[in-house]
Amino acid sequence: MNTARAVGFPNERLVFMACCCDNEESNEHRAPEAGATALTYFLMQSMQSAAADATFRDVFESVTAEVSSRYRQNPQIEGALDRPLFAREFSGQQPFYVNRVDAANRLVEIGGAAHGMRTGSQIALFRPRTRRFDKDSNRLTTATIVR
Q1: How far apart are the C-alpha atoms of 110 and 6, rounded to whole Å?
Q2: pTM of full prediction above 0.70
Q3: Strands 121-126 and 139-144
Q4: Paired strand residues for 55
Q5: Nearest to 7, CA basis, from 91, 96, 81
Q6: How far, CA to CA in Å, does 76 sit from each of 79, 97, 105, 110?
Q7: What are the tens digits of pLDDT across the range 81-140?
Q8: Which residues, 6+ apart, have CB-to-CB distance to 114 below 8 Å?
Q9: Are the beta carbons of 97 and 115 closer than 8 angstroms?
Q10: Any alpha helices (H) in the chain, and if so which ranges?
Q11: What burial class does residue 42 get, using C-beta atoms within 10 Å of its C-beta: 0-12 exposed, 13-18 middle, 19+ buried?
Q12: How do residues 45-63 score in pLDDT, each as one tens digit?
């Protein structure tokens, strides 16, 4: 049995965002008040309404939902996702991957061979906004990579 492990981002203090996956195109979002990439527009909207203790993960989950529901693109994020948006200090986080469900209701893993995943690898699945991935009580189920 091959168990996939998340690979940590090189710097625990940085957050890297991309408008889409490498096989997708980034879309422009046309809004009356301004034009910008879909990621930028919805990121700014989400940050303006974010709670004082919101994390990058909290904001990016809503951004991804907005962008993916309007365009055929899936924004990506890596790094210190549990870092508060508006704080100077950060206590760290556990590594993880973000998954999504496609139009056919299939789980799509955002990770691959570079991360140690291949056919037969097993992954644990958790609810959105989970912060602790080392507790069995937080795990929903496990899945096996089939292709």
Answers
A1: 11
A2: no
A3: antiparallel
A4: 84
A5: 96
A6: 11, 10, 20, 9
A7: 888 887 766 555 566 666 677 778 777 766 666 667 778 888 888 877 777 777 778 888
A8: none
A9: yes
A10: 38-48, 56-70
A11: buried
A12: 999 998 888 889 899 999 9
* Token duo for residue 99: 């998954």
Buried/exposed 97-133: b ≥16 CB within 10 Å, e otherwise = ebeeeeeeeeeebebeeebebeeebebbebeeeeeee
Determine the length of the chain: 147
CB of 56 within 8 A of CB of 64? no
Backbone conformation region of residue 133, classed left if phi is above 0, alpha if psi is from -120 to 50, else beta: alpha
Token representation of residue 19: 């408008």
**41 vs 44: CA distance, rounded Å:** 5
pLDDT at 7 over 50: no
Q: What is the rounded CA–CA span in Å between residue 25 and residue 91? A: 34
At 73, list the tokens: 């693109």
Rounded Cα–Cα distance for residues 34 and 39 (Å): 13
